[in-house]
Amino acid sequence: MGSHHIAFGGLFIIASISSLSMFYLARFLLQNEEICMHSNGLNHANEESDDMVITARLKKVLDNMERLQAKLESTVQQMEKNPEKFHANYISGSGFKKFLEKEVIRPLYSAYIPLMQIQESRIEENKNATLRGDPMIKTFVSEELKKYITPKENRVGTINLYETEKIYSTMGYGCVSMKKELEEYMDYEIGSNCKDDWNLGQTLMIQGCDPLPRRRCLAKASKLYLKPYSINESLWRMPEVRNVRWSNYQCKNFECLAINNTKHDYSPCTGCFDMAKEKLKWINHTAQPIYFVIKDVLALKPGEIRIGLDFSIGTGTFAARMREQDVTIVSMAMNLGAPFNEMIALRGLIPLYVTLNQRLPFFDNTMDLIHTKGVLDGWTDLQSLDFVMFDLDRVLRPGGLLWIDGFFCKRKDLDEYLFLFLQFGYRKHMWAVAPKSKDEVFLSGLLEKSNRG
Description:
Elements: H1 2-37, H2 44-81, H3 83-88, H4 93-127, H5 135-138, H6 143-149, E1 152-153, E2 166-167, H7 172-177, H8 179-185, H9 198-206, H10 231-234, H11 254-259, H12 275-278, H13 294-299, E3 307-312, H14 317-323, E4 328-332, H15 340-346, E5 350-352, E6 367-373, H16 382-395, E7 396-410, H17 414-422, E8 427-435, E9 440-448
Parallel strand pairs: 3-4, 3-6, 4-5, 6-7
Antiparallel strand pairs: 1-2, 7-9, 8-9
Helix pairs in contact: 1-2, 1-4, 2-4, 16-17
C-alpha cells in the first residue's frame, strides 16, 4: 500500500514540476517580450544585463527542479523493478509524510521562493513604469539605478514610520524633486544663527534629499544646556530636560514622552522613553521564544563581538546593554516625533542620524554585529528591503552576526520576506516564529555571515 502511495505521489509531483517549470518559463519569456515592446528609449545593453541576472536565477531554479524530478523518477523505477521489496517494507503514514517533506516539499519550497521573487520583481516593474517615465529618472541609463531611485510605495498601503506613503532613495534626484524646500533650507544669513528648521531638514532627508548640503550658519542649542550626567549614571537615568530643544515636539519633556508614547507618531518605539520598561529588555528569557537574550548571543562568539550597529527604532537601550558587556554599538536614529538622537547622546551613547535608505557610512566587512528591530517590518517594499539587506551584508564582516529582532509581517507575506533574509546563505544560530495576531507573525533570527572570500 505504501509503495503505491509513493508511486502515485511521485508521478503526480513529476507532472506538476514539469508543468510548473514550463509555466514559469513561458511566463518569463512572455514578460521579457512585453518589456521589449515597452522599452523605447532604454539602453539595450543594460536591459540585457538585467534580464541575464533573472535568467540565471530562473535557470538555477529549473536545474533544482530537474534534479528533483530525476530523483523521483529513479525512486519510481526502483519500486517498479522490486515491488516485493517495497511491499515487504511497508511505509506507515508518518513515514510517507517524512519522505514527502524531505524529498519533495522542501526542494519544491526552495525553488518556489525565488520564482515568487522573479514574479514580484516583474510586478513592481510594471507598477513603477509610470514613475520611471519621470524625466529626471530617465536621465540615467542604468536600469539598476532607475530601480533604486524610483520611489517605492509602502507594501501595506499606509503611512510608514517615516510618516510618508513611499520610500525615497537617497540621491541627488531627491533634492531636485524638492527644489522649493531645499532652497528654503539654504536660505540663511552666513555666519548667523540657523533657523530652528531641523524638522525641514529631516523631511528633506526622508524624501530622498540625503545627505543634506553643508551650511554656513550656527546650529541652535538649548539656552539652558547643563553638564550631562556621568557615564556611570547616564545609561539608565532620565536625561536633563533642559538639554533638548523642544520647539518642534508635542511633548516638552521626557516625562511626557514616557507617559504618552501611544499618542504620538512613533508607535514602533512605544514605551522606549520609560526607563523602568527599558531596563527589562534583552536580559531575561520570556515566554515568547522570539525574544533572545544578549548574553546568549555573545556566548556564541566569546570575545569576538566588539563593535556593531543597531539598525533600529529606539532610545539606545540595546547599545546601553551592549556597553555593559564591553561592546560598542552605534545606534541609528531619526527624530520621529521625539528627540531620539538627543536621548541616545545624553545617555552617553553614539547616535547615527541616517534614514532607512541612506547607504551605511561604514566600510565593507567592518561590523561584528548588526541588530535590527522596528525598522524593517512588513510595510517595507520588497525591492527597497532587498537593497537594504545587501548593504547590511556589505558592512557585516565574515563571521559577524545579523540579529533580526521581532520582525513582523502579514502571515501570507512571510515566505517573501524569508527569502530576502536567507538569500545570503548565512548560518542559523537561533530562529523563532510566533503569532502576533490572527493574520500576522513575529520572526526573530540570529544568523552568521560566511566567508565568501
